[in-house]
Amino acid sequence: MNLPERPITILIAALGGEGGGVMADWLMEAATESGLPAQSTSIPGVAQRTGATTYYLEIYPVGKADLGGREPVLSLTPSPGNVDIMVASELVEAGRAMQNGYVSPERTTLIASTHRIYATVEKMQMADGRFDSDKVLAAGRQLAKNAVLFDMRKLAQESGTVINAVLFGAMAGSGVLPVSREACEGAIRKAGRGAEASLSSQRRRNARRSCTKLRRSLPSG
């Protein structure tokens, strides 16, 4: 059996109070229940809009039962150019990820909400200090192998849940995770609290056609 050379790498950037840690736990539960070796780490941020909390996961896409007692070596930190799935709960957080090199046209599926929560530096300006959202969107469409971009906060509000459920649904529906949608739904149910609202947002996201999916590599030369 030819084994994959590397795990699936997932980097999540979420703001305080958006349930990024819960989403990372859902992913770990789905991977564990699917029998896949997985590992997660996190870097705490702050609860206000001066930074983000990031979560990094690696999931090896072959079941432990098929590894013959061997264990893959998983990393604790992401590296630029080596992220398969970049998830951002707000548009400028996606921009930060691209600026730091975590989105590449050869590898990365970018899943990000297009809504804005203004950063402190934007609010401090005497005039209009807002970042240009169109530039971030254009960069995402150009730099990512696959970009899934839509207003996830709006869908979360319509479903009576938190944005982490919509982000998780977008990942499950994108086909890039090495775990099934059923495993993802099972992880949410096992968590218990707010499960039905979270599952509802997942299903509504998968039924909608308002999201943008683009596959475009950087132009040569």
Question: What labels describe this entry?
Answer:
alpha/beta; disordered C terminus; seven-stranded mixed sheet; Pyruvate-ferredoxin Oxidoreductase, domain 3; 221 residues; 8 helices
Description:
The chain is built from 8 helices and 7 strands; from the N terminus they run E-H-E-E-E-H-E-H-H-E-H-H-H-H-E. With 221 residues, the protein is α/β, with parallel strands linked by helices. It has a single domain (8-214), classed as Pyruvate-ferredoxin oxidoreductase, PFOR, domain III (Pyruvate-ferredoxin Oxidoreductase, domain 3), CATH 3.40.920. The protein has a 7-stranded mixed β-sheet, with helices on both faces. It starts with 7 loop residues before the first strand and ends in a 7-residue tail after the last strand. Residues 206-221 have low confidence and may be disordered.
